[in-house]
Amino acid sequence: IRENLPPGTLVTTLRAVDADTGTFGELRYVVLEQAVGDPTAGDGRDAFAVNVSSGELRSRLTFDYERAKAFQLLVRATDAGNASATVTVRVLVTGEDEYDPIFLSPTFNFEVPEGARKGQSIGRVLATDEDEGADGVVLYTLAKPSPYFAINQTTGFIYLRVDSQPQAGAGRAKREPREMSLEVQARSPLPASRVASAQVTIDVTHTSFGLAPD
């Protein structure tokens, strides 16, 4: 069952089979009071209700994946002759993407050092996500590809795709400050994930990035 669904949501229909016909083949379903010994699962007796005649199992609560991820309960089917069978029901709560990723800063500023080589990291962006499970995993991408920079999608490190190549014939005193901007996006690996963006400004004064060759 997905989290945040309203109470009364149908989870499944439990169906026992009785070979008797007539009255003795009619079954009544009930959730048993005895506890189920799985320490990783919550007690489902108060969380779910079973229809006594149809076996429909419905939720009695709205679930929060961040609080509880599984429930377990014991259901018994009894016929008119008091013969019975029991079954253990395990219900897993699945998460929804409830929270946006949040970057630690809306903007980041980095510099390409003089003489930097291809593959060298120049800085790291970081975002967090309060969701748990796959929805809480953060992956990073550039909104638009760059010929000069790339980002590690799992760590958020921005690195060079090419050598920095100093400006030809430019003395240190004559270099005018130059900057490039990137937009980095953070999202989970699941479809329809929530997305957050941050702006990255990179000082490329000590490179020939973006300059026409002499």
UniProtKB/TrEMBL annotation:
Any single Gene Ontology cellular-component annotation? membrane
Give the UniProt keywords, A-Z: Calcium, Cell adhesion, Membrane, Repeat, Transmembrane, Transmembrane helix
**Cellular location of this protein?**
Membrane
Name the GO terms of the biological process aspect.
Answer: homophilic cell adhesion via plasma membrane adhesion molecules
Tagged with keyword Kinase: no
> Chief subcellular site?
membrane
Note the SMART domains from the entry.
CA
**Residue ranges of domain Cadherin in the record:** 1-103, 104-213
> What CDD domains is this protein classified in?
Cadherin_repeat (cd11304)
Name the Gene Ontology molecular function terms of this record.
calcium ion binding
Can you say what this protein is called? PCD16 protein
